[in-house]
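Input structure tokens:
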């Protein structure tokens, strides 16, 4: 685990596309850090976490760039929406990297994983936009958006992330 206050930040190529001679690239900017939870908190499966627990925090955003005719890379757009990135990368004529699907999955599931407004049961409804502030979960009783729940990153996912980033986290 990284020492508190340090961060690994890498920009990973997800896919490229030749658009009639314009070379378009999609990237994920991946940031991993260690944070200490300062108060009593709950996981998205409503397990209590004791104050002072250290966890991995993951933050991902997408970048779309293009190589201009002079060979310079220009950033066209930033994306905070993994579902849009998935639609672009999977539906287009992009040449994706072997781990592109893995990164998209991490982005969809663990981006800002200490700041989840939803419990695990509400995740699907959240993705579909079918939930409102305070809506109670029929399974665990949690009210949507009433707390910041923590989604812990499984050890297997952390290991995959270490391999993609080429760094110990
Ligand atoms: Zn629930």
């Amino acid at each position: 685990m990284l020492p508190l206050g340090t961060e690994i930040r890498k920009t990973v190529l997800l896919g490229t596309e030749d658009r009639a001679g314009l070379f378009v690239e999609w990237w994920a900017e991946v940031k991993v850090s260690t944070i200490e939870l300062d108060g009593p908190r709950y996981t998205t499966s409503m397990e209590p976490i004791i104050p002072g627990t250290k966890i991995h925090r993951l933050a991902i955003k997408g970048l779309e760039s293009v190589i201009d005719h002079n060979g310079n890379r220009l950033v066209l757009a930033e994306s905070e929406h993994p579902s849009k990135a998935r639609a672009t990368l999977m539906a287009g004529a992009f040449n994706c990297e072997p781990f592109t699907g893995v990164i998209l999955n991490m982005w969809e599931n663990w981006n800002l994983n200490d700041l989840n407004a939803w419990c695990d049961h509400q995740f699907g409804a959240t993705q579909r936009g079918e939930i409102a502030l305070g809506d109670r979960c029929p399974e665990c009783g949690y009210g949507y958006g009433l707390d910041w729940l923590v989604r812990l990153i499984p050890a297997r996912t952390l290991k995959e992330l270490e391999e993609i980033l080429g760094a110990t986290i």
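The chain has a mean pLDDT of 94. Strands lie at 7-19, 22-36, 41-42, 48-49, 54-67, 73-79, 95-96.
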